[in-house]
Amino acid sequence: MSTMPTDHYADLLGQVTGFIYPNELEVNWSVMIVIYPYLTGLVAGAFILASLMKVFKVKEIQPTYRLALLTALAFLIVAPMPLLLHLSQPLRFYEILVTPNTSSAMAMFGFVYAWYLMAVLLIEIWFEWRLDLIRLGQTAAFPLNWLYKALSLFSKDTSPAAVAFDRKAIQAITIIGIPSAFLLHGYVGFIFGSVKANPWWNSVLMPLAFLMSAIVSGIALVVLVYMVLQGLRRQPIDMPCLDKIASYLFYAVIVDFALEALDFIHRLYAAEEEARILGHLITQKLFLSLIVLQILLGMIVPLALLAVTKARQFNDDLRKLLYFLSAILILLGIFAMRWNVVIGGQLFSKSFRGLMTYKMEIFGLEGFVTALGLLVLPFLILAVLIRLLPTKSTAEPEIAAAA
Predict the structure, then answer these.
(1) 8 Å CB contact between 293 and 328
(2) Terminal Cα distance for the chain, rounded
(3) DSSP secondary-structure letter at 64?
(4) pTM for the full model?
């Protein structure tokens, strides 16, 4: 017997249009499940941008290499928190590791997360900063000097042979990390795309769309963080670096737009009995978040801004402004994409004859304030990481000698 108050059901029924089944009154996956793929996408995109420097030798983006790694780490630390808050028993999260269920894609996230964090990202960061940690352990004041010594695992070897090994290890780990980053976020799209009962999710292009949008959002995030950080430090922005990253962002947005357009065209071509309700969903419930935020402001406008910037020889200040606006709009658009997939896919009835509305609470474990806190927390962690770990290497002579 349900103990839910009668006025609560009355409120939910007031949000319904058409016919829905009684067990479809509430949206089961809240904004926490929107934030979760959004954060993991930012992690994957930032790491892939960093890998361009080490694997593909794109020297122009060297100024953002370390920043991209720290950004990926900061967001990866927060990535599982939305899932924990969504669980009814969050203190039992460890059971996903001690009693693994290999048939559950969601359960396997714990192992993918642990692999990416422990075996890829942290190891690459350790090798990249090892020399800096040794030096800071010798020069920093107490107690930070002991912190740096502990982080360096009390390593003292700064010989050219050790530096050369660091470089080789970083390259090898980065090569392993690229498919790992794809796996980290690609499986999220796989989870949604494999739900055959939901025509809004069931698409073979869903994993690709999630992965490509992750790359777009991660690159945009690094652009935004780099520009803000340089402004706070009152240091000049490396324009060749920014132009190169903006070029990658431009091409990534084009591919992402093509994938999402192809997915939409395929849905129209294969329109079955659900076509009518999906049309109502787009034009009524998701018009603002899908048409305005995701497609217009989040994709078409930044694509036009980046295209104009590439076609015209604007001065540095104007290019910075256009890149900054494009990055913000892209991040907004990708968040809207996650919202439309997760929330939008739950707003229509399995009868294909009714729609309901998702009403987010202000406070609570899955409310607006908590969601906003989860989006701000990675930036606070990133600020701490930047204070502890230099974003510009102090070991260039040794690296050059080893190379």
Answers:
(1) no
(2) 71
(3) G
(4) 0.89
